[in-house]
């Protein structure tokens, strides 16, 4: 083991050379010696540390053994719990499968009923559409007949009006010519 040496005389001389008073330089040297001796580890300190490390090592070994034992127990317990959980989950899955099958069967039955209702509604709608087409055709035929009758009436009324207008215009023309002829005789 190496020993730390501190030359207090050289330290004091150096401080005095830079203007530090001798009593203050000596006090500083003593303080440094105290600090070094207080902070320096002794053989007893090393033996105590070695003893403490052995105690810690024994405790760590004991804790390690205890942890290994606890971990083994926990592993066994976890395996048992996992096996129980697996069994429980398989049972639950079977129950859910049965429920799904029941729901599937019910939905298929409902879908068949809905399909039958849709087919019936489709047939009914097609029948109604045919009836409406027939009614539309009947109304269309009736309207065409009525339009022909109106067209005939309009043609008859137009011919009658044409005849009346022609007669009136003719009468007005004759009257106009008579007036012109009378005016010409009066003027001459």
Features:
single chain, 188 residues, 3 helices, mainly alpha
Q: In a nutshell, what does this entry contain?
A:
Helices cover 92% and strands 0% of the residues.
What would you say this structure looks like, in words?
This protein is mainly alpha-helical. The protein has one domain (41-187). It has helices at 8-17, 22-39, 43-187. Helix 1 packs antiparallel against helix 2 (22-39).
User: How much is the radius of gyration in Å?
Assistant: 65 Å
Secondary-structure element pattern, one letter each = HHH
Shape: elongated
End-to-end separation in angstroms reads: 175 Å
Instruction: Count the DSSP helices.
Output: 3
Fraction in beta strands: under 5%
Specify the helix fraction band.
Answer: over 70%
Largest sheet: none
Low-confidence runs of at least 5 consecutive residues: none
Structural class: mainly alpha
Count every beta strand, where a strand is a DSSP E run of 2 or more residues: 0
Nearest-integer average pLDDT: 90
Number of domains: 1
Lay out the secondary structure.
Layout (H helix, E strand, L loop, with lengths): L7 H10 L4 H18 L3 H145 L1
Helix pairs in contact: 1-2
């Amino acid at each position: 083991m190496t020993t730390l040496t501190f030359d207090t005389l050289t330290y004091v001389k150096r401080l005095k050379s830079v203007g530090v008073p001798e009593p203050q330089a000596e006090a500083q040297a003593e303080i440094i010696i105290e600090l070094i001796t207080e902070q320096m580890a002794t053989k007893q300190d090393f033996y105590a540390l070695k003893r403490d490390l052995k105690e810690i090592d024994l405790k760590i070994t004991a804790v390690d053994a205890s942890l290994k034992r606890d971990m083994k127990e926990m592993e066994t317990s976890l395996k048992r719990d996992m096996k129980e959980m697996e069994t429980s989950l398989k049972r639950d899955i079977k129950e859910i499968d049965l429920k799904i099958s029941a729901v599937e069967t019910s939905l298929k039955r409902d879908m068949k009923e809905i399909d039958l209702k849709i087919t019936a509604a489709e047939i009914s709608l097609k029948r109604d559409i045919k009836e409406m087409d027939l009614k539309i055709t009947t109304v269309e035929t009736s309207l065409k007949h009525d339009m022909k009758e109106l067209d005939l009436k309009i043609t008859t009324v137009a011919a009658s009006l044409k005849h009346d207008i022609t007669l009136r215009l003719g009468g007005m023309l004759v009257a106009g010519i008579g007036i012109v002829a009378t005016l010409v005789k009066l003027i001459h």
